[in-house]
Structures are given as structure tokens and as C-alpha cells.
Amino acid sequence: MDSVVPFVDKVLEKLDREGILQHLVVVGSWCVYFYRHKFKEAFRLTSWRTKDIEFETSLISKSQKPKNIITILKELDFVMKYHGEAGYTTFEHPEIIVEFLIHRKGDGIADRYKLPGFGIHPQPLPYLSFLVSNTMSVEYKGLLIKVPHPANFALHKLMISVKRKNLEKVPKDREQALAAWNMLGELGDKKMLTTLFTGLPKKQRGLIISALTVMNEAGKIEELSGGTSQS
After folding, report:
1. Taking the chain, what is the end-to-end CA distance rounded to the nearest angstrom?
2. How many CA atoms lie within 13 A of 105 on its CB side?
3. SS3 (DSSP) at 82
4. What is the distance between the alpha carbons of residues 30 and 147, in angstroms, rounded to a whole number?
5. Is 118:15 a contact under the CB 8 Å cutoff?
6. The pLDDT value given to residue 229
7. In angstroms, rounded to a whole number, what is the distance separating the alpha carbons of residues 204 and 15?
8. Average pLDDT across the chain, whole number
């Protein structure tokens, strides 16, 4: 994916100049790229493939001067696509697709999540509030990129791997979760995993345990329950 990085950089720089980037959290597989940038060889996973860059938008309403994102991205030759049945918008370019997401509440009808002044309908998805409840900033080419803490990223990937309808994405979810988990172990920061896990509702804890069970990761289940193997 090195070939798309320069164009992603253009998008990030444009959103930063418009005062929007600081209110977005990069989520999804592009987190792998930024973790690798920050943590270097501690983050073992280097291979990943995606043309989609996803931004979580729950902070964007705090922007003092809303700017129309449709206009901003059209200046970079993106074409807006409206997903009529689902009700959300994406922005497509031959190089990448930009998606905006938000935590789903209730029935998840996207029209109810329109961001006034920004012109977009983010796609509502479950568990995003947990993913972005604990973020960190990565210094990247003169920009500050917000990403989820790797512990939130790992547990979220495990949760959604159980709920995926597209089973082809499940192995990637779990591979990325393990890479973030193992990095935290190498950095001596696995306690965050246990802290976050114990604070989750029972249903979400069950999804994580289910994923780890299928993955034959009994040791990691023990870590979450406070076993002696926890760092």
C-alpha cells in the first residue's frame, strides 16, 4: 500500500488545513500504518491491504467553524457516493475511499446522524464509542493524527471479528488484534487490556472471550481474567 500513502498524506494535510483533522480519529486498518510509524519494530505486523481510510466523527461537532467536507474533498477530485438504503455517504477516488463513521445508537438509521454544517452522513456502527474512548496522538509528517489506544484497538477488533457478516475480513481483524496485543506486551503495558476488559458490559466481554477461544488463545484469556501471565 506504499503507493497510496502520498495521496493519503494529501487528504490528511487538506483536512488539517481546514481545521477538521484535529476533530477526527483514524480507525480501521490505517491504524496499523500509524502504530507502525510510532512504535516501529515493536508493532510486528507490517503487511496490510486496504484502500479505505476511515474516520470516526463523534468529536467533529466541537469544531468552531463547520466546513463542508463534500466541497473540501471534491477539491481533491473525490466523488461523493450516497448509499441510499443505508443512508450514509462515502467519498471515492481512484487511489482511496474515505469513509466517515459514528457510534450507532438505536436502529442505526444514518439520516439521524447527519452532521450539520459538514454535509456528510457518517455510517453508524456498533462499539465505536469504546474504540475512541481512549485515544492517543501520533506525530506524523508535521501533523498530529488521533488514533485509538492500541488496547482499545485490539479489543475492538476481537469484538467485531465475532459479529462480522463478511467472514473474509475476520482473519485480518484477529491478526491485527494480536499484533497490537503483543506490542503492548513488549512495551510492558498489557494491564490496560485488563482494565478496559473489566469495564466492558458482559455481552462485549463475551464477544472477546469467544474470539480468543476460537483462536486458541487461552493464555490471553487468562491475562484478561487477571492470571499470573499478565504483564
Report:
1. 33
2. 6
3. strand
4. 9
5. no
6. 39
7. 33
8. 89
d(Cα 56, Cα 26) in Å, to the nearest integer? 6
List, in order, residues 6 or more apart from 42 with CB less than 8 Å away: 183, 186, 187
Domains of the chain listed by start with CATH number: 1-148 (3.30.460), 150-231 (no CATH)
Residue 34 Rama label (left phi>0; alpha psi -120 to 50; beta)? alpha
List, for residues 130-174, the tens digit of each pLDDT value. Answer: 999 999 999 999 999 999 999 999 999 999 999 988 888 899 999
25-66: per-residue pLDDT in tens?
999 999 999 999 999 887 877 666 678 999 999 888 766 678
Of the listed ranges 174-178, 204-208, 210-214, 223-227, the one predicted with least confidence: 223-227
d(CA 165, CA 105): 19
Residues in contact with 58: Cβ distance below 8 Å, sequence separation at least 6, in sequence order? 25, 102, 103, 128, 129, 132
**Burial 37-70, CB ≥16 within 10 A → b, else e:** ebbeebbebeebebeebbbbbbebeebeeeeebe
| Neighbouring C-alpha atoms within 13 Å toward the C-beta of 121 | 15
pLDDT at 193: 95
> What per-residue confidence (pLDDT) applies to 49?
65
The dihedrals phi and psi of 30, each to the nearest 5 degrees, come to -65, -15
Measured between alpha carbons, how far is 33 from 110 in angstroms, rounded to an integer? Answer: 28
Q: Are 208 and 159 in contact, with CB atoms under 8 Å apart?
A: yes
Kindly report the pTM of this predicted structure: 0.91
